[in-house]
Design goal:
Shape: globular
Largest sheet: 3 strands, antiparallel
Distance between the termini: 38 Å
Order of helices and strands: EHEEHH
Structural class: alpha+beta
Strand order of the largest sheet: 1-3-2
């Protein structure tokens, strides 16, 4: 029986999607529906680098949240 891994989709800066998918296609993918807009998908499993996940989500939030909320989240933890 196959088990699906969890995934997360988030917005990425222009050009980052192609770099990540090419460098690590086993971890990163172009998600349906929003992939054409540069969003990145990444798979979660036992080997997940949670610091990397935090950085990707933090950057995505700062790119999509209203400016007054985005400034409340520092670029780095």
């Amino acid at each position: 029986m196959a088990h699906d891994r969890g995934t997360v989709w988030c917005k990425a800066p222009r050009g980052v999607q192609a770099i990540l998918v090419e460098a690590a296609p086993d971890r990163f993918f172009v998600p349906p529906y929003v992939g054409h807009k540069g969003w990145i998908g990444f798979r979660l499993d036992a080997a997940t680098d949670w610091d990397e996940v935090e950085a990707l989500i933090r950057r995505s939030y700062r790119m999509t949240a209203p400016r007054r909320l985005a400034v409340l989240v520092p670029e780095e933890a």
